[in-house]
Amino acid sequence: MRLILLGAPGAGKGTQANFIKEKFNIPQISTGDMLRAAVKAGTPLGIEAKKVMDAGGLVSDDIIIGLVKDRLKQQDCANGYLFDGFPRTIPQADAMKEAGVAIDFVLEIDVPDSAIIERMSGRRVHPTSGRTYHVAFNPPKVEGKDDVTGEELIQRDDDKEETVRKRLSVYHDQTEVLVDYYNKWAASGQPGAPKYRKIEGVGPVETIRDRAFAALAE
Ligand code: AP5
Ligand code: ZN
């Protein structure tokens, strides 16, 4: 299974990726998680990326494409992969097409902007694994602790309301065009064209999971 999860910031890509990667036994390639790891490690890339991420902008296509191409060389991608938060621009999508990176499904999770701010303000993450919770909608078993490791959960630096609004506008300006891009490719009937599936992303986390699994079974 090789798929792209498409959706606005806070649509639940990371939350659903967690279920999908386990079901299909594939790695989750989250460019956001990779960048946050670089920020934490204090690498030159991390230092540069942090400024852009905290402002709610996008890191340059060349950097992201390079990161993903390197990641795809690793052995665990042989069985498939799940892209979370990538591609995010037409040049990123084109680069994957040109490199012959196969995609079986594009799964769009649709959530209106009005629901996003509330989700982000209550989000808590386990920085090492990228596991994501919400204080009200998807709470951890023990308050403030990761379910698996028991380690502290944190708030992301880019979850401030002002930054979230900026990220949403960047999504509408630069990423939403990919809905059309992949729909057209899917409808083209070309060899290797992916299937396009769209699910409603509002509702209990488990309901969305069931919708995602059903969409990927068709
Ligand atoms: P990235 O980490 O990709 O952030 P994002 O796309 O903005 O998405 P999020 O991680 O914020 O949301 P999500 O859809 O994963 O939602 P989640 O499951 O956590 O990117 C961060 C930054 O890195 C970017 O701004 C950019 O600067 C840079 N970057 C990354 N990739 C890049 C690229 N390809 N090119 C250029 N720059 C790049 O859920 C959100 C919250 O809602 C959680 O609290 C969760 O518990 C809760 N929730 C989930 N599902 C539900 C539900 N059904 N009901 C209620 N609450 C729910
Ligand atoms: Zn995410």
TrEMBL record:
Cited Pfam families: ADK, ADK_lid
LID as annotated region, ranges: 122-159
Positions that bind AMP: T31, R36, G57, L58, V59, G85, F86, P87, R88, Q92, R156, R167
Residues binding ATP, per UniProt: G10, A11, G12, K13, G14, T15, R123, T132, Y133, G203
Subcellular location: Cytoplasm
Xref: InterPro entries: Adenyl_kin_sub, Adenylat/UMP-CMP_kin, Adenylat_kinase_CS, Adenylate_kinase_lid-dom, P-loop_NTPase
The reaction(s) this protein catalyses: AMP + ATP = 2 ADP
Region: NMP, residue numbers: 30-59
UniProt-recorded Gene Ontology molecular function terms: AMP kinase activity
The EC number(s) this enzyme carries: 2.7.4.3
Enzyme class: transferase
Family annotation (PROSITE patterns): ADENYLATE_KINASE
Domain Adenylate kinase active site lid: 123-158
Keywords, alphabetical: ATP-binding, Cytoplasm, Kinase, Nucleotide biosynthesis, Nucleotide-binding, Transferase
UniProt pathway annotation: Purine metabolism; AMP biosynthesis via salvage pathway; AMP from ADP: step 1/1
Function: Catalyzes the reversible transfer of the terminal phosphate group between ATP and AMP. Plays an important role in cellular energy homeostasis and in adenine nucleotide metabolism.
Self-association state and partner proteins as the record states: Monomer.
Family stated for the protein in its record: Belongs to the adenylate kinase family.
NCBIfam families to which the protein is assigned, alphabetical: adk, PRK00279.1-1, PRK00279.1-2, PRK00279.1-3
Record remark on domains: Consists of three domains, a large central CORE domain and two small peripheral domains, NMPbind and LID, which undergo movements during catalysis. The LID domain closes over the site of phosphoryl transfer upon ATP binding. Assembling and dissambling the active center during each catalytic cycle provides an effective means to prevent ATP hydrolysis.
Protein name: Adenylate kinase
Originating organism: Noviherbaspirillum album
Lineage: Bacteria, Pseudomonadati, Pseudomonadota, Betaproteobacteria, Burkholderiales
Gene name of this polypeptide: adk
